[in-house]
Design goal:
With 363 residues, the protein is α/β, with parallel strands linked by helices. The protein is built from 11 helices and 13 strands. The protein starts with 13 loop residues before the first helix and ends in an 11-residue tail after the last helix. The model has no long low-confidence stretch (mean pLDDT 93). The structure holds iron/sulfur cluster (SF4). Iron/sulfur cluster (SF4) binds next to strand 8 and helix 11.
């Protein structure tokens, strides 16, 4: 049974207001660890903010800046410690078959290794493509490879753990046309990394497979957590923003989430819900709470407009800081009430938390 949606007045606002403003405005900073495009909705430079990872747009005209270890707003100290994440040593290595490691996987935050195992998507035709996604833009720019082999990922993961203290790994994939939606290849990648680096927790991310046994394969391969990302629970919003994925009914996602919770455990399954796609905020918060009650962590994240996306071509802008703080604060209040913490995912985006303000609000 879902509790009442908390009002904005019931949640802490001070740090969350700064964190939400930062997520929307971005920051003036030299960020050695940064990504500009790729799969999903994030565009960011990586900081440590009060000791937590924060993925924040780099914006030379932002009122926020990072100086001498502090976050400043209009030149005044906010009282928050901030420093850019340093370039990891594994970026300077090259695989035995001649591919630079940083084309195979990237550092996120200060302890997450992230890779897109298949850098193409069967839904990339402009009529089907998610409007916030630029998965093939990095491939076209020569910044990554089309497919990462399990052996390459095992090699990079071992080095990232050894040289840079990476603590967990995210493996996402573009959607394949096959019924497993890419899950079977993900499972091979997980198995190879677990064999090379026993104990490295891995989150996998994919669409709901049409063959349900694929989820069990991922778990059996050694994945700790799984993200099955719907982005919005409003079908009209899905039709507009993710027209290809929107052909997969919400009921199919619900079935996949339930199977995944049975396999991986409660709070080892998550989904992105994007703030700023035009969904009614109360419905977004209510939907996030229902998912949390099912054991699915609702990773609410402000939509960002990446270079190379259809959203950028449309001239769309992201959500207001007020909306980010409101939605995030209310979802975090429910997560606190039911004892669901992102870090308990064990691996992946919700465990990292850098792309969301939820952890600043205690979620
Ligand atoms: S939340 Fe996910 S996408 Fe964002 S920085 Fe962390 S691992 Fe990367």
């Amino acid at each position: 049974m879902t509790a009442q949606v908390p009002t904005a007045a019931q949640v802490p606002t001070v740090d969350l207001a700064i964190r939400a403003d930062l997520a929307v405005q971005g920051v003036r900073v030299e960020a050695p660890v940064r990504r500009r495009a790729g799969a999903g909705p994030s565009d960011d430079g990586h900081l440590l903010l009060g000791g937590r990872g924060a993925a924040v747009p780099v914006n030379p005209s932002s009122r926020f800046s990072v100086e001498a270890g502090s976050l400043l707003l209009d030149g005044l100290d906010t009282g928050l410690e901030a420093e850019p994440v340093g370039r990891p040593a594994f970026y300077d290595l090259v695989t035995a078959d001649g591919v630079p490691y940083n084309q195979l996987a990237r550092l996120h935050g200060d302890g997450v290794l992230a890779t897109t195992v298949i850098q193409t998507c069967t839904r990339y035709d402009p009529s089907e493509r998610c409007r916030f996604c630029a998965i093939e833009a990095t491939l076209d720019a020569g910044l990554t490879t089309r497919v990462k082999t399990p052996a390459q990922l095992a090699e990079v993961a071992a080095a990232a753990v050894r040289l840079d203290g990476v603590r967990h790994m995210v493996m996402t994939t573009g959607t394949t046309a096959s019924p497993d939606r890419g899950a079977r290849f993900l499972a091979r990648c997980v198995a190879a990394v677990v064999a090379a680096v026993p104990g490295l927790a891995i989150q996998v991310q994919c669409e709901p497979p049409e063959e349900p046994e694929s989820l069990a394969l991922l778990r059996a391969a050694g994945a700790t957590a799984i993200g099955i990302h719907i982005e919005s629970l409003d079908q009209a919003v899905r039709n507009r923003w993710t027209p290809g994925k929107a052909t997969v009914p919400i009921s199919t996602y619900e079935r996949a989430w339930r199977v995944a919770v049975a396999l991986f455990g409660a709070n080892r399954v998550s989904t992105y819900l994007l703030i700023g796609l035009g969904e009614d905020p109360d419905e977004l918060v209510g939907g996030a709470m229902r998912l949390a009650d099912l054991g699915v962590y609702p990773f609410v994240v402000p939509m960002r407009v990446l270079e190379g996306t259809l959203a950028a071509a449309d001239g769309v802008t992201g959500p207001s800081a007020e909306m980010v703080a409101d939605v995030t604060g209310r979802v975090a209040a429910h997560l606190r009430a039911i004892g669901m913490l992102g870090e308990d995912q064990g691996a992946g985006c919700a465990a990292c938390g850098a792309c969301s303000a939820l952890s600043s609000a205690g979620g």
